[in-house]
Amino acid sequence: MSSKAPIRIAVLVNSASGADRTEFDRFIAVYYALLDAGAEVLVASASGGHPWPKRLKPSGEEPDELAARFQSDWHARDDLANTLQFGQLFVEDFQGGFCVGEPGAIWRGTDLDSVEALIARFLQAGKPIAVVPSLFDITPTGAADGLLILSDGKWPPIATVRALLAAATQFDNRRIEP
């Protein structure tokens, strides 16, 4: 009886504003949706380490279910505090990616270690990547050989996560089968 390895997904935290609680809430929603679906998750951010300059607690006076889960989950807090830098990720190690936070123009950037360059590498490798929120520039190359999954921002992100994992599973099967 063989057990198949879980799908490996890179979660890219693009925290441009530096202290955006909405991005933080989106991150924990995506993080837990992926884990609950059985994915192996690795988190990356621009500078590595904790992506926000101060530790943000989930919004609201009373923590919701996900916020309470995060506050009591030392593994999740450790994953967030010890993110890799975007430049330290190798797209080949993942079946897909999920970007939380709005990127800029993905085909026009010159910084090879930016979130935009990393999204472009996923797409060039023919791998699926989801982006939330989805207002960004994909001209002139579009999705290249990859699959770009865009969300309208409705939460929880389970539909986006399901689409990403289905596409990542297909990519993984295509890579393994002759």
Task: Give an overview of the whole structure.
With 178 residues, the chain is an alpha/beta fold. It is built from five helices and six strands; from the N terminus they run βαβααββαββα. It has helices at residues 21-36, 65-71, 74-81, 115-124, 158-176; strands at residues 8-13, 40-45, 84-85, 96-100, 128-132, 147-150. A six-stranded parallel beta sheet has the order 3-2-1-4-5-6, with helices on both faces. Strand 4 (96-100), helix 4 (115-124) and strand 5 form a beta-alpha-beta unit. It starts with 7 loop residues before the first strand and ends with a helix.
Attribute tags:
6 strands; single chain; 178 residues; alpha/beta
Which helices and strands occur, and which strands form pairs?
Blueprint: E1 8-13, H1 21-36, E2 40-45, H2 65-71, H3 74-81, E3 84-85, E4 96-100, H4 115-124, E5 128-132, E6 147-150, H5 158-176
Parallel strand pairs: 1-2, 1-4, 2-3, 4-5, 5-6
Describe the structure in brief.
The chain has helices at 21-36, 65-71, 74-81, 115-124, 158-176, and strands spanning 8-13, 40-45, 84-85, 96-100, 128-132, 147-150. It is α/β, with parallel strands linked by helices and 178 residues long.
